[in-house]
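Q: Predict the bound structure with magnesium ion.
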Amino acid sequence: MLAVAVLAAGKGTRMKSDLPKVLQPLAGATLVERILGSCRALKPQRQILIVGHQAERVEQSLSQHDGLEFVLQQPQNGTGHAVQQLLAPLADFDGDLLVLNGDVPLLREETITALLEQHRSSQASVTLLTARLDDPTGYGRVFADASGQVSAIVEHRDCTDEQRANNLTNAGIYCFNWKKLAAVLPQLSTDNDQGELYLTDTVAMLSPAMHLEVADADEINGINDRYQLAQCEAVIQQRLRRHWMAEGVTFIDPDSCTLSDGTRFDRDVVVEPQCHFRGTTTIGRGCRIGPGSFLENASVGEEVEVLYSVLRDAVVADRCSIGPYAQLRPGSELARDCRIGNFVEVKKSQIAAGSKVNHLSYIGDAQLGENVNVGAGTITANYDGVNKHQTVIGAGSKTGANSVLVAPITLGANVTVGAGSTLTKDVPAGALALGRAKQLVKENWS
Ligand code: UD1
Ligand code: MG
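A: Predicted complex:
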């Protein structure tokens, strides 16, 4: 039997934020989502989140997470006090308890699995994760002998100078025999610099206490302030980019680009400098993205080019070309071989194959047939101040420069709109529509 408890009740004072620490985002997921994700593979029988500071907000953020129990810690009197709150809910539980600090988001699934395996095969009372850090400032120091047996953990602020020189560091990830832990939890005292109940003090009361040292010290990075948050973000970004490079994506300047967990690339994509991918963006084979583009929840087909552009909740089919300086807003759908040029904004519109909107346009709430050519500066006037209205442009139609199509309006197939027209009425297929003042010339006027 396995229970997992994540400590997420602390305020995160050092973050200086209105947001609880465990809800700070890293590469698009909160710290606590990342921690919970790292123990999903263990399939625990119980999953408990200890909440306290802004408990409701933390619970709400995880409402989609199935099978999670919330236990309230009020007030927050330290990590040992947090785990004491489990004495009642786990009164009948007999098995291992994995305790994870909520602010250690870089842990790998394999590491937690290895910790649990070692704990079970050695029959220790507690097994904790450690690493040797170049700079262990702020972390608890672990005192262990050569056989891996731990005698104590001393917090940085409670260490003597000599103890501080020990760089074997407590990760804040522990596997306990729950019955044995439950027996010593009531004995914790507040006799330390912070006057709190420390979970780490239970380690000296349990025997045998063992540790597992991780090879990659990055994994145990705890986040207490914004600097550590940025360092962890950098580690996650590095991991994501390396993963996609191994899958056949070229990054011209990897460090200048950011990804999310949900980003997916097919092979032979080239990502130019300064590109940012958020949410569940997917990029098809052979695309060239950037430089300077931002894509959020975008679905991009094969061999598409995107240059200095923003795409949000947009769908782009094969061989389209976007930008420079275009914006595809939510609900934009481009079929294959479309071209969206500079200073063009598209919103909630379907554009059929081979159509072009090359310069300086706004296309909103519109449906364009195949091979439409939208002239420079064409605007769909979709909003009457109260409601949004549709514009429909039939296949093969052309609009002249600076046309305004006042919606609702339908142009049939193969319509030509004269430059500078403001159209308010439907135009039948094959027609020429002009809606502008006639030119007047007065000779010898000057
Ligand atoms: C803790 C460990 C330290 C370890 C480090 C690893 C203790 C006493 N110290 O220190 O040995 O090296 O983590 O990152 O455990 N929390 C609660 N309730 C509380 C207090 C904290 O739920 O009353 C939660 C916090 O939300 C956080 C976690 O416990 O997720 C750790 O608390 P934090 O204050 O960050 O402990 P550290 O000082 O980092
Ligand atoms: Mg911490």
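A: The chain has a mean pLDDT of 97.
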